[in-house]
């Protein structure tokens, strides 16, 4: 048995954890293996707690898929630290998968959402949490540009945090330049940061004269990508390839 553990950042939003659990269950049905949702912060179970639960349920190993889009601080430091601790406290083998990322499969998935949900001619705003790592923000900006090229919409990214030109104020700046805006959240589930913006969309529309529409958080739409990360990790493991770990 090779189980799946999705590893999210975690959120203080009351509904965020349920959204991640729903995603994990959806992927579990796709891969035919058990899955648990774990979190780096704010929510339980932690990665260590999830690994211990799977060990008790009879799993011999699990693939950990980080629900992260960029290689910023959480990916470089928090995820490896959580993996190290979980390996010490549980009795199962943990395989580290690639994060969800900003690759071609994400471009395709987001483009499909735009094609089905965005009004024709609307300017796309890819809205993400943001990072102090400028390379991470640049990766999201590039993702927005690629979605724009793929869909024929103009597109850009706005981050929720980081000072001037971010959050709702940043969206207002963009709205003043366009007749129609479609918000495309780069969030897996409900978030306090996302709610802070979506609750103001109608006010922004009234203040700017811009038509504002929005997609919801990614939710189970990203399940195929999570499942793909799982399968790559399983197929690349030494035991699958016929080797052994040294």
UniProtKB/TrEMBL annotation:
- Transmembrane segments in this chain: where? none
The alphabetical list of record keywords is:
Lyase, Metal-binding
Record's Gene3D superfamilies? 3.40.50.1400
Show the SUPFAM superfamilies listed in the entry: Chelatase
**The UniProt record lists the keyword Transferase:** no
Gene Ontology MF terms in the entry:
lyase activity; metal ion binding
Q: Which InterPro entries match?
A: CbiX-like, Sirohydro_Cobaltochel/CbiX
The family database entries (PANTHER family) matched by this protein are listed as: SIROHYDROCHLORIN FERROCHELATASE, CHLOROPLASTIC
Protein name in UniProt? Sirohydrochlorin chelatase
Species assigned in the record? Corynebacterium alimapuense
Q: What is the lineage of its organism?
A: Bacteria, Bacillati, Actinomycetota, Actinomycetes, Mycobacteriales
